[in-house]
């Protein structure tokens, strides 16, 4: 893996010395452009990024209304509790406001990922609120009844482990096939992870 990275960096160096300044912006490989920008592009970095998921939200740390439920540990965020509440349900349902939608900035990124068998998934809470990344057999509600809006809680949420803001977890030993994960606090935060042997055949 490391060897590939060095090879790319060397190649990039060759490009930068051989090309005129105009050409560097138009005809270089992505690796060469990365090297120009002071970034060392390696294949191993790319593979690593392909098995990371970030749990995100956008809570506004200036809103004291977050305090009673754990506060908001983001430095920059702009969603107040009031705005969060506005997006919880859709009025375009029968009965009106009868279905859970959830604020779109409470999300997993990416929300779908394919990884190679045997790889460990790395999940980081990059939001300012507590989340969970809980494997469930079927997507459902979580363990905070007001945030379920009619969804039956997924049974796995009864023992879900909190991931506080800023904390990283690893999910290892995933069997081949599709795995479903949800946040048991904000159940619209979902992710699917497909574990497969041959990444080339995707
Ligand atoms: Cu959450």
Task: Write a concise keyword list for the protein shown above.
single chain, 202 residues, alpha+beta, 4-stranded mixed beta sheet, 21% strand, disordered N terminus, binds copper (II) ion
Describe the structure.
- The chain is an alpha+beta fold and 202 residues long.
- Helices cover 21% and strands 21% of the residues.
- It has 5 helices and 10 strands.
- A 4-stranded mixed β-sheet has the order 4-1-6-8, with no helix packed on it. A 4-stranded mixed β-sheet has the order 5-10-9-7, with no helix packed on it. The protein has a two-stranded antiparallel ribbon with strand order 2-3.
- Helix 1 packs across helix 3.
- The longest helix is centred in the first third of the chain and has 17 residues, at 2-18.
- The radius of gyration is 21 Å and the shape is globular.
- The chain starts with a helix and ends in a 6-residue tail after the last strand.
- The model is unreliable at 1-26 and 39-45 (pLDDT under 50).
Brief synopsis:
With 202 residues, this protein is α+β, with helices and mostly antiparallel strands. The protein is built from five helices and ten strands.
SSE arrangement:
Layout: H1 2-18, H2 21-26, H3 30-36, H4 43-49, E1 52-56, H5 81-86, E2 89-90, E3 99-100, E4 107-109, E5 112-116, E6 121-125, E7 134-136, E8 168-171, E9 177-182, E10 190-196
Parallel strand pairs: 1-6, 5-10
Antiparallel strand pairs: 1-4, 2-3, 6-8, 7-9, 9-10
Helix pairs in contact: 1-3
This protein binds copper (II) ion.
């Amino acid at each position: 893996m490391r060897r590939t990275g060095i090879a790319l960096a060397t190649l990039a160096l060759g490009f930068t010395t051989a090309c005129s300044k105009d050409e560097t912006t138009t005809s270089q490989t992505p690796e060469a452009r990365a090297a120009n920008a002071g970034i060392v592009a390696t294949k191993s970095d790319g593979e690593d990024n392909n098995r990371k998921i970030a749990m995100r939200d956008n809570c506004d740390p200036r809103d004291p209304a977050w305090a009673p439920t754990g506060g908001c540990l983001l430095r920059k965020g702009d969603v107040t509790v009031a705005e969060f509440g506005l997006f919880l349900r859709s009025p375009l349902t029968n009965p009106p406001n009868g279905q859970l939608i959830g604020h779109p900035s409470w999300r997993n990124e990416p929300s779908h990922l394919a990884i190679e068998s045997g790889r460990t998934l790395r999940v980081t809470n990059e939001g300012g609120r507590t989340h969970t990344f809980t494997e469930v057999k079927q997507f459902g509600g979580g363990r905070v009844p007001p945030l379920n809006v009619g969804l039956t809680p997924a049974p796995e949420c009864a023992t879900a482990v909190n991931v506080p803001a800023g904390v990283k977890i690893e999910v290892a030993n995933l069997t081949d096939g599709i795995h479903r994960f949800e946040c048991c606090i904000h159940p619209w935060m979902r992710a699917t992870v497909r574990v497969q042997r041959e990444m080339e055949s995707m």
